[in-house]
Amino acid sequence: MPPASLPTNPRVLAIAILRQGAENGVAIDQLRDEELRRHRMADVRDRRLVMALVYGVLRWQRYLDWVLAEHAHHPLQKMKPLTLQALRVAIFQILFMDRIPDSAAINETIKILQAAHQPRWLTGFVNALLRAISARKTALPGPSEAEKVPWRVGLSHPDWLLERWQTRYGHEATARLCQANNTPPPLILRLNPARTNTNNFLELLTQAGIVAAPGAVAPDSVVLHGALPAVEDLPGFAAGLFMVQDQGAQLIPLLFGPLPAGPLLDGCAGLGGKTTHLASLLPAGARLVAVEPHPLRSIRLRENLTRLGYVDRVEIIPTGLAEYAHDCQKQFPSILLDVPCSGLGVIRRHPEIRWRRRLTDLARYQAMQSELLNMAAPLLAPAGVLVYATCSTEPEENEAVIERFLDHHPDFSISPCTPTLPPVARIFVDDCGFFRTIPNLSGMDGFFAARLVHSG
After folding, report:
1. How far does Cα 17 stand from its chain's mean position?
2. Which residue, 5, 9, 28, 343, is the most exposed by fewest CB within 10 angstroms?
3. Is there a catalytic annotation at residue 178?
4. Which residue ranges does the chain devote to CATH 1.10.940.10?
5. Does the domain spanning 190-244 belong to CATH 3.30.70.20?
6. Alpha-carbon separation of residue 266 from 62, 168, 270, 283, 309 (angstroms)
7. What digits encode the pLDDT tens for the residues 134-150?
8. DSSP character string of 43-84
9. Residue 61 to residue 266: CA distance in whole angstroms
């Protein structure tokens, strides 16, 4: 939260969100929503500017820091967090936002630092630095000028991740993946078939002046383009006509095929993207058990189920899967296990992830994922289907978890994902039968899923 002495404006909030995200590790989406609500920023143009500044800085942080280091001659790691984030926000405006005059970006930054009672020498240093960058900006190479900008700087991802991807995909494919991650993605909605259909919803958007089209892959998806209001201000939000969800994520619940009449278990429900989708696919009279131990996520899950009209079909269990599995006396013909993961497949929507993850995190997530999968296995009925899913691109969290699980559970086997998917989506199933999307190849976020069958 910005100091009380600071005026509330988009640049102030952007700097505050970036500082809190870097210092506390809280999700940027959550910080953004909290700050916008706290400061009652209702003007849609101001909200858009906050988001453009925050996500732009996070996407291009490595390049911005390279430009800054070339001009500052002062170690970035020794700068105070307020100074560093203020400089990043200002440089992003100067180099990436043509509609904002450089003078406005510079002057507003100085005002923010002055209002925060920064010493005169510091504001003088920042002023001179930003004016020098502004004067040279036409001569500064852009991030795509590989012959002038170090390759890794231009791609704006951490070294450890670039090295992994280059080994796995090659140089050119890694560059395309990073470029996809650095491109703002469109807003994707999943329509609620109980309350609308594609034609009616597109007409509703057209009447509101919003440009949209059906998604190319997921059956009930709609892709929105251009400048948009906040999600809760979109037509049909309050009426429960849609859920925000990438097309790749929308395909994962389809991997079960037609759901049986028996109960279904969602072992890691979260905010309810896939939970609400599964609830919409349930046959008449069927029930879904959704396990979500985190109190705030559990509240949001119930809110989403209520808004879409599916709360009566779902029993929310406010404990972890371990506690639920220990006391559970029944088995399920269908189980979804959308496990916690590194999130390295959704960097284009959550650009801060690239700077927060470390190589050592993969082993930690793998251990957690394997444990959850082992907990869920006894809950699956004979001949039942378990869908394991992540939003990660990394093998340690995906096929390695499945391979380890199968080594210890010979009564389980991989069932190919292809037959359950729409024909247009079957290209995302690999030779092992796994579902996999990668942003630079699919235009969707990066997801992995395996369909496991209990032969017992």
Report:
1. 17
2. 5
3. no
4. 10-150
5. no
6. 38, 32, 9, 16, 18
7. 999 999 999 999 889 99
8. -HHHHHHHHHHHHHHHHTHHHHHHHHHHHH-S-GGGS-HHHH
9. 37
Read off the pLDDT of residues 50-86 as tens digits, 9 standing for 90 and up: 999 999 999 999 999 999 999 998 888 889 999 999 9
Structure tokens at 125: 């240093």
Percent of the chain with pLDDT over 70: 98
Name the token pair of 22: 């870097």
Kind plus residue range of the DSSP H or E element containing 374: helix 359-376
Q: Read off the amino acid at residue 193.
A: P
Top CATH class of 10-150 equals mainly alpha
Task: Tell me which residue of 303, 288, 254, 282 sits closest to 424, measured CA to CA.
Answer: 254
Long-range contacts of 303-308 (CB under 8 A, 24+ apart): 304/243, 304/271, 304/272, 304/275, 304/276, 305/272, 305/275, 305/276, 305/279, 307/237, 307/238, 307/240, 308/192, 308/194, 308/195, 308/240, 308/243, 308/276, 308/279, 308/280
| Token pair listed for 280 | 């919409």
Place of tokens 């390759």: 151
User: What average pLDDT does the structure give for the chain?
Assistant: 94
φ, ψ (nearest 5 deg) of residue 203 = -65, -40
Q: Does domain 247-454 have CATH number 3.40.50.150?
A: yes
Pairing of strands 264-266, 211-214: unpaired
CA 25/CA 75 separation, integer angstroms: 23
Q: Which residue is catalytic, options 178, 341, 391, 417?
A: 391
Tokens of 208: 């509101």
